[in-house]
Amino acid sequence: MEFPGVQLRALLELTRSGTMTAAAAALGYTPGAVSQQIAALERAAGTELVRRLGRRVELTDAGATLAAHAERILAAQAEAVAALERGRGEVTARLRLGVFGTAAAVLLPPALHRLRERAPGVCVASRELDVDQAYTEVCAGRVDLALGLDYPDAPLALDGAVELVRLRSERFGLAVAAGRVTGRRALRLADAAGFDWILPAAGSYYGRAIRAACRRAGFEPRVVHEVTDTATSLAMVGAGLGVTPLTELMLRLRSEGIVPVPLEDVVERHIVVAVGAAARQRPSVEALISALREGAAP
């Protein structure tokens, strides 16, 4: 009786999500593909694991039993990979790294150069992700680790299977069009209540975090342009279309026509690496995290 990891992950996600459609969205599959994974798992187990209740599904007793063991099985597989890697005596591995736009442009190149010098046997394949999906992508096993962002004003919901390793914390200021303000004195966030804002959607972690900080300062930001891409937001600021939050790493993407204005209010974000708890023990993973941490340093 064999239970492939991809099928166990499908069962676990179905347990969390409750529907084939939601599980498929989280795993990046079609609902039909998730259904096929569950059917294959049922054939291997020799019994029914889920019961359909309209659009939702619930676990049978056998399904609940297998789901209770699935995380331990997957963790044991990851621990075995880590032990084999440690036993080779040299750091060699192929790693899949999820990245988001700013990280790919600013953090990844110097980190990979450092890694190549220190651990030439580690080969990294990167894949751009929606930053809000970094944690989910690691949980689903589609990447080994992923660069992400965590906001104190809109924190990620975590479980024990995946860890967040903090690389750097950054305070937000404001990006303002040149000529809009005199000097670069620090502003209170409340002073920006009358500005037009350029922000991501309210449903994103970033969008929620900034709106929460503005409400704490006593106002609702007047979002005139809803934009996700940082470089695009900064270009719009440079064109005089509004203000947007700004960190030092963001400023590396574009600085033309922009005045960075510090905020008196503490509004932060943490640049993190999401990594499976067992995978963290792999020397190759630790080498990559170390290179990323150095690349993220001020």
From TrEMBL:
Q: Where's the HTH lysR-type domain?
A: 1-60
Q: Which UniProt keywords apply?
A: DNA-binding, Transcription, Transcription regulation
Q: Which Pfam families match?
A: HTH_1, LysR_substrate
Please indicate if the UniProt record lists Ligase as a keyword: no
Assigned GO CC terms = protein-DNA complex
* InterPro entries found in the cross-reference section: LysR_HTH_N (IPR000847), LysR_subst-bd (IPR005119), WH-like_DNA-bd_sf (IPR036388), WH_DNA-bd_sf (IPR036390)
* Molecular-function GO terms, alphabetical: DNA binding; DNA-binding transcription factor activity
SUPFAM superfamilies documented for this protein? Periplasmic binding protein-like II, Winged helix' DNA-binding domain
Family affiliation? Belongs to the LysR transcriptional regulatory family.
Quote the protein name from its UniProt record: LysR family transcriptional regulator
**Annotated source species:** Streptomyces chattanoogensis
Its lineage opens with: Bacteria, Bacillati, Actinomycetota, Actinomycetes, Kitasatosporales
